[in-house]
Amino acid sequence: GIIKADNDKPVTIDELPQKAQEFLKQHFSKNTISYAQVEKELWDKKYDVVFTNGEKIEFDKNGEWKEIDCKFSAVPDILVPQQIQDHIKKQFPQNKIIQIEKDSKGYEIKLNNKLELKYTPTFQLKEIDD
């Protein structure tokens, strides 16, 4: 059978996992939330929170962040693993991190100069794409 892709539905902030709510309060309290939605997949679901400035955060079903997209500002330093921060500050001192994504394969970072850097789960750089 075909899995319909229109499984996105709006949710209120109170319907987000507790962990996601706390994360938003702690790190993005200055941002105004435009909307939040839940995306149901077959065995899984994820939450998207979009701010009025167009930036967004994606959480997994437990409220852990999966992707932070701060394309108009920068990802808060505290959310970037220290080893990755150090590497980027050394190699790309002029640039800032505008997007970070994490999954079982590691981290993917996008800089405001359009470079994409991929790191292993242990923070070793494994690839640079431009």
Provide an overview of this structure.
- With 130 residues, the protein is an alpha+beta fold.
- The chain has helices at residues 18-27, 82-91; strands at residues 8-11, 33-40, 45-51, 56-60, 65-69, 97-103, 106-111, 116-119, 125-129.
- It has a nine-stranded antiparallel β-sheet with strand order 1-2-3-4-5-6-7-8-9, with no helix packed on it.
Count, helices: 2
| Broad shape | globular
Q: What's the rounded overall pLDDT mean?
A: 94
Poorly predicted regions: none
Please give the share of residues in helix: 10-25%
Main sheet properties: 9 strands, antiparallel
Biggest sheet, spatial arrangement of strands: 1-2-3-4-5-6-7-8-9
Q: What oligomeric assembly is this protein in?
A: single chain
| Radius of gyration, taken over Cα atoms and rounded to an integer in Å | 16 Å
SS-derived structural category: alpha+beta
Measured distance between first and last alpha carbons:
38 Å
The portion of residues forming beta strands comes to 35-45%
What is the number of strand segments?
A: 9
Order of helices and strands: EHEEEEHEEEE
